[in-house]
Amino acid sequence: MKKIFLALLFFSGILFTCASTYAQCNAELYINKSMRSLANGYQFSKSFRIDGRGGARKKIEYTCVFSKDTNYQINISGKDGGAHGIIGTLYDSRRNKIVTSYYNNKFSPGWIYKCRATGIYYLSFTFKDSKSFCGAAVLGFRR
Amino acid sequence: MKKFYLGISALVYILILSNTALASKMNDNPKVVVLSQPYSVSDDAIMQILQAIPSPLEISMLIKELGTVYNKTDLNNSDFVSKYNTSFKKALNLGVYGTDLGFANIYSKNQDALNYLSSVKKLADGLSIGQFFDYQTIKKLAESANNFDELLMTTTSNFEKINYHLSQQGRDHLSILLLTGGWIEALHITTIVQQRSKHEDLKVKIAEQKIVLDQILKVLQMFKTKPEFPGLISDLNELKKVYNEISIETTYGQPTTQEVNGMLVVMDNNSSTVKVTDAQIDKITSLIRSVRNKIIR
User: Fold this and answer.
1) Fewer CB atoms inside 10 Å of the end CB: C or N, chain A?
2) Where would one find the signal peptide in this protein (chain A) (predicted)?
């Protein structure tokens, strides 16, 4: 009986920790933060929730349609502070990498992409040295 | 002793349950009734495609920047709101009015914007998602007309919240209708402005919607068994037939990245060319008018 009790206690502990970590990602906070950091002249267009569910999700990917002759700004922020722990990467329709926010061994808060080809793009978010696995990114545009 | 262990085990179990419930409450507004299990794989997949549909604001801004004149009759009549009685019609026209609201805001037509805002509020309430639409703040911003950027940002972000919460409630079918309605209205406005102005940029923009239509149809197909969806899908498939004749060719090159004041700036070396004829634009104009008329009447 004692062994069963200890095993139950152990697994309960794991479940409790997982549930607590998962509860803590309020992406809305980071959407607002990222939105307010868009550069002058950029209109807010979309937001992307980055919830790694406590590390269970390694990659979060969104599809975007970008238009040529439009500048797009991506702003990332997360619970670890600034953009720390979150890597955003943009790929074109052929999955060629265009830009990654982990640049020169540091987490950049985002990028400005001067688009010259209308099409499907893939915006993916992964984690590196993240404690929270939680954040958000926003997309702004300017003609 | 056995009773002691059982008691402790029961206590731990209750603790876990309450923690999970708390977790769920912290993530969602307590007013929301979660109708389906959130975060299933298909929900994520739908959400990811939904995110692909660009904000109608992008087209509206282009129209304004080309120097075209605001014409109220290009937009839906805000008084028609009482005609929309089904969830299907409400969701589609919520999207339509959302685009019209953005358009009126961009042209600083405050009274029109307030009328659309009121219609948006009625439809959002009718779909039980009015609590996610901050009507008072947007109204205040629209009335003051001093903070254009803030107004657009708040309006767009509120529509996003509505969409997100619909999805969280397992009502993705309404979410895609909202986006489809917004897109149809934006395309309709673009076609009629293009007919008047003959701007080459608008012609290209209309043709480029081929990519967006593909994304929209991808999600609509997932709900083809829902009432009223087959008709809309069939109409948009007719439009797709015309779009299939239009080609968008892309050439690929290596992008260049540089850091400017801490921000990465990427120069794209890809380029795309659209091949579209005036006859194809005319067909699209006529078809989108017909689809839109079915929605707003």
Assistant:
1) N
2) 1-23
3-state secondary structure B257-268: EEEECCEEEEEC
Interchain CB contact of A64 with B (< 8 Å)? yes
Structure-block tokens of residue B89? 């019609």
Strand partners, A86: A127
CA-nearest of B17, B297, B29 to B162 is B29
- Residue A5 CB burial class (10 angstroms; 0-12, 13-18, ≥19): middle
Decide if pLDDT at A85 tops 80. Answer: yes
- Torsion of Cα atoms, A58 then A62 then A68 then A74, to 10°: -60
| pTM score, whole prediction | 0.84
The nearest CA of chain A is from the CA of B265 a distance in Å of: 5
Q: What is the pLDDT of residues B27-58, one digit of tens each?
A: 333 333 333 333 344 666 777 778 888 999 99
DSSP 8-state secondary structure symbol assigned to residue A47: E
| Residue written as token pair 């007719």 | B238
Does B266 sit within 8 Å of A111, measured CB to CB? yes
**Locate tokens 């299990």: which residue?**
B37
- Residue B158: left if φ>0, alpha if ψ -120 to 50, beta else—which one? alpha
3-state secondary structure of B38: coil
Q: Integer distance in angstroms from the first to the last C-alpha of chain A?
A: 69
Match 């080459």 to its residue by tokens: B200
CA distance B134 to chain A (A): 15
The mean pLDDT of A62-91, rounded to a whole number, is 95
Residue spans per domain, chain B: 2-296
- Closest chain B residue to A88 measured between Cα atoms? B264
Could you tell me how many residues make up chain B? Answer: 297
Please report the pLDDT score of residue A90 as a whole number.
97
Q: How far is A141 from chain B (nearest CA, A)?
A: 8
